[in-house]
Amino acid sequence: MKVIGITGGVGAGKSTVLGLIKNEINCYILIADEAAHEVEKKGEKCYFELIDLLGEDILAPDGAIDKKRMADRIFSQDGGELLSRVNRIVHPRVKEYILKLIDEKRRSGSVDFFFIEAALLIEDGYKEICDELWYIYAEEEIRAARLKASRAYSDEKIRSIMKKQNDDETFRKYCDHIIENNGDTAKTREQIMRLLGDRKGE
Fold first, then answer.
1. What is the pLDDT, as a whole number, of residue 75?
2. Spatial CA neighbour of 9 closest among 176, 178, 156
3. Which residue of 23, 115, 131, 189 has the lowest C-beta tally within 10 Å?
4. Are 94 and 86 in contact (CB under 8 A)?
């Protein structure tokens, strides 16, 4: 089983690429944000650590962590220090969860590929976990247009998010392969199939 990390800036179309991959090969796809949701569930160690840090105000009436309340609490503090502390709690737990799942899939022999999608694969050291990192690239103007259309983001919010993420040079430096995803789905699929090549049956 080959482990491949899928990364890229916001609006690059990582979900589109994964949708194309899912239809072509025997694989398991894990979205890191979904893994974070799992480790933050009520009763998990991460759940209690986040409450200790942020307070019970982040909880919904049913006792689960309310994502919006947590985000409001984190970003109410200037400087990003609280966000850094949250990341130091959540990211190691997510990595543990992913490593356990990779081991389970590898032992079961049920899939040929295991894909991990996350914007922070490089920063969080997933290069050590993955056999390859794929960078999904799209021009900034196209990414911005997608975010306006799909999420109704303002220009200011888009600039703010992009500024906090890796630039194109950094993604290209650390990733093994680049898939251009500027809107032509057929061309995107062609690049994916070229990368997978004869490995589909491994």
1. 76
2. 178
3. 23
4. no
